TrEMBL record:
Protein name, as recorded: Nuclease PIN
InterPro entries with a match to the protein in the record: PhoU-like_sf (IPR038078), UPF0111_domain (IPR052912)
Organism, scientific name: Nesterenkonia sandarakina
Highest classification ranks of the organism: Bacteria, Bacillati, Actinomycetota, Actinomycetes, Micrococcales
Length: 205
């Protein structure tokens, strides 16, 4: 049963929103990484790993919380799915960061910044949605916008891959594809969060 307006927001909702904020901070760090000199990048990686660790801790705290309370704002399987999908997003964000760090001389195309912007927009929407899971109208708008952003990300991904068609060294194209794939995987994980939100709308309407 969803907690309605006027009732105290449950801790589970707060924890989900906190996980989403950590993931959003991770994407912001990746954007910062692209414009940082090599000697500053290792510090940014440590920050990124710290965010990942906090997201995992929040996930564990959430699992402990829903086992210890009698009533939850959503079915426990939905809460678990949302938290797991958010942590999967973080895993792919960290993977993209590691791949970028491993190739300090690789020049990324403009599509990389476009993809990060789309992912950041997704996470802005996710933070808002996780904070207001009781608002079915907001969830419906969230679901619609996430579908549109994912389609946009798919187009950007294709443009990124085809931009390397004329690369003289095949390994350069492969390196670009690995980073592009990691970011697209994060985008797809965010769509999975929206799909779970969509199932809540259908069930609660």
């Amino acid at each position: 049963m969803i907690v309605r307006r006027g009732q105290r927001k449950p801790e589970a909702t707060d924890l989900l929103a906190s996980i989403a904020r950590e993931v959003r901070s991770g994407v912001q760090l990746i954007s910062q990484l692209l414009g940082s000199p090599s000697d500053e990048r290792s510090a940014l990686r440590e920050q990124l790993l710290g965010l990942e660790g906090r997201a995992v801790d929040l996930h564990f705290n959430l699992m402990t919380h829903i086992r210890s309370v009698f009533v939850t704002p959503l079915p426990r399987q939905d809460i678990y799915a949302l938290s797991q999908q958010l942590n999967r997003t973080m895993e792919h964000v960290v993977a993209a960061g590691d791949l970028i760090l491993a190739r300090p001389h690789l020049v990324l195309p403009t599509q990389s910044a476009d993809q990060l912007e789309t992912l950041s927009r997704q996470l802005d929407l996710t933070v808002a949605a996780m904070s207001r899971l009781e608002d079915l109208d907001l969830l419906e708008d969230y679901w619609i916008q996430m579908q549109r952003l994912t389609k946009q990300a798919n187009r950007t991904h294709r443009a990124w891959l085809t931009s390397t068609d004329n690369a003289f060294q095949p390994n350069i194209a492969l390196q670009q594809a690995q980073i592009a794939d990691a970011l697209l995987a994060a985008v797809q994980d965010q769509r999975a969060v929206a799909v779970t939100a969509g199932s809540i709308i259908v069930r609660e309407s």
